[in-house]
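Reviewers of the previous submission asked for a worked example of the structure-prediction workflow described in the proposal, so we include one complete record here. The input consisted solely of the amino acid sequence. No template or homolog information was supplied to the procedure at any stage.
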Amino acid sequence: MSEPRPVNLSGTGPPETVLDPEPPDALEALGSALGNRDAVAAVVARWPRFLDAWARLGQLGRDDVEAYAAFRAGYHRGLDRLRASGWRGSGYVRWAHPENRGFLRALEGLRAAAAAIGEHDEEERCALFLRQLDPSWPPADLD
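From that input alone, the workflow returned the following structure tokens.
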């Protein structure tokens, strides 16, 4: 069992949450699967709480609707993981922490997929949420 990761409080701003790291075998499987939609889907099926696997599946979606569905699943799974890590609906979840990148990549993908299917209100909400979670959004190394 992993050790709980408390929310970091500081006198200089909102709390910051860092998600627990993914299992090493999940990271290895995803690294080997990248670029192959079916292989990434198999990683998602084996580790359904693996946020970056959902985000990568969204990037490989066969159409805008499939991409939207995968990003949305990753986003909602991410909210569950954030809450389990002590996040209470506000505070930073920064890209600078590799553990947070799957959630943020899923949220960015959801933003773009919402735009692609004409859900402009959702696109705007996602864009605002990303900037609230990480004021330096977007990162230079977003892929």
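The two ends are 31 Å apart (CA to CA). We consider this example representative of the routine output the project will generate in years two and three.
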